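From: lab user (bench 3)
To: helpdesk
Subject: output format question, protein + calcium ion

Hello, I'm new to running complex predictions and I'm not sure whether the block I got back is the full result or only part of it. Here's what I submitted:
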Amino acid sequence: MAPASSPAHILVVEDEAVIADAIASRLRSEGYNVTVASDGPEAVAAEDEVRPDLIVLDLNLPGFDGIEVCRRVQGHRRVPVIMLTARDDETDMLIGLGVGADDFMTKPFSPRELVARIKAVLRRAEHSAGPSLESGAIQIDPKTRQVTLSGKPVHLTPTEFDLVRSLAEADGGVLTRDQLLAMVWGYRDGSGPRTVDSHVRSVRRKLGDEIIRTIHGVGYAFGSGSQVVDEEGENV
Ligand code: CA
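Helpdesk reply: Thanks, we reran it on our side. This is the complete output you should expect:
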């Protein structure tokens, strides 16, 4: 079934022709417009030319790799990226580096799962308006997706931004890792809780430890100025 109105344009970057063809034909059968590129330089040129709504980007590419493609593309335009990796530890490494990808998938994966992830990422990209949120020295603008700390802009990856925003919008309420996975990543899977934890760590590195409180055995809550403290001054 074709998506409503004008179908999204997806750039598939993959040097293994068999995989690229399989992904492209599945996406076309779902009603998407698809452009395929097979190396780093070709990916950057194609992005500039077709202005895709989303990029499915293999990490290991000839020319230069997916990290460099992401850097060059995100440098001039915000475009959602789903990064394909060969191993789980590559995904952990990329999250640690704060690469600007919205989601990661380890090969091999089912085309059905890729389509589900694409839909979730596109939905998140659309859902980007809303009032600005403030807490202590931190200001979050959902419209520009800009976060400032004491008036200074802080660069967050798209996923880090969505994590902070989801917690801030919960208004001090606690969100479990499963809830965060569903809200931020749009899916549930076994390796998920670890993904949430690594992103929480990288957000704390950028915005300070107080930004997110760990609620042991439950999940996370937005910290900073809005946190509730009891009479002893302890977080509750
Ligand atoms: Ca490859």
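A quick orientation on your result: The pocket of calcium ion is lined by residues 15-16, 58, 60-61 (CB under 6 Å). Let us know if anything else is unclear.
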